[in-house]
Amino acid sequence: MADSLQSGIQALKKGDALSAIQIFEQVCSETTINVQDQFQAQGWLVRAYLKAGRSSQAEALCQQLIQADNPKIRQWAAKMLEKVPAQSAAIQPQSKQTSATAPSDSFSGDLPHPLARLAPTEPLTPEAVEQILEEGIKRLRKRDYRAAIAALEDFIRGADDSYPNYAWGKTSLAKAYKGNEQYEAAIALCQEMLETDRESTRAWARDFMKTLPGDLINPTLEQNTPIFVGSKETTDRPDTLSPSKSPPQQKNRPGEFSSSTAPLKTRTDSTRTGQSYRQRAAAKDLTPQALSGLAHGCISLLASLLLFVLFADSIAANVLGLLRMAVPVVILLRTKDPVVKANAKEATNYAITAIVLLIIVYLGSFFLALGAAAILIGAWPIFLLIGLFILIYSIAFSIWPIYAAVVSARQLGRIVRYPNWLVLRVLDTK
Fold first, then answer.
1. Distance CA 125, CA 122 (A)
2. Are residues 306 and 400 in the same domain?
């Protein structure tokens, strides 16, 4: 479907409006079309009608769009409707043999918004939102930017700003856009984040925009576009451009197109994702940061020293020393927050590695000492290199959980990773 849509856009840009109309009408008639592609196709179809001189069809479709619930869509449709009388007299119908000329200046001003695919759809459940966000972050860390973009765009469409990790999802999507060289989309997303109420998000967007090509950055985004992204100023998020007041029409057969389609449900406050998320965000709940810090902190050297100071060399200290390794496992099994879960997985991998090393040292200490002596006698430089590696590894192994606990507790939405050479990757956290 996306390929067909792009083919129509390219045909229209080359001046072949009739071919573009056929493609866009075919896309709109598909029963399996998703909402964002429908937004794209109907917006471009208006432009194609005007380009081909079919003012009556363009007017009919604009009349449909002007009844949408989203005020930005109504504004665009009204603006395009004003162009119909002027363009109907000036533009003559074109044939399929129209030469492939460059688009005019007036046409280039109506190109789709870089964030057109982020138009909201049906809200997702909190569990689905968490899974999609975690998948997108995992793909981003693997530098699989296309897969990351697909998942993170699904997250943005299915969630809203009441979700505590919504800003994190947007910043991750901006990184994925940059990695995939979709610079205009990254810039548009950053400019959207500059309008948020959170200063930390605005500061991140300003800094990130400095890493993007400067010649593409404009002070404002284009407003006269076929597609609009839902914003904080609007509470109504339509799932279609169809008129909300018109009665349902007969479903078209494949290959046919009608300028009126049946309306779908709009998103209301009662159907939005996670009322509890909205309450937690408003109350500035620090529970995710506290749990992430606890998962890393309880397995750190500081926790061992604290137990030693409180209980000296008692049985309680030994028992608690073992039980503290189970804390990240409990957090991992109980939490639903994707950031806390990821931090708990990292801490669990560390705990498993610590237990494995303890077993190796306890059971194989004699053989380790014998092997070290043999290496020292036969090849002492190798012994020094091994000793240096063990020293560096021990220092890093002791310090890293402390660093992870401090960083994850102070920075909202931060996942602290342990180096692959430091811990065993028993649980997949990529």
1. 10
2. yes
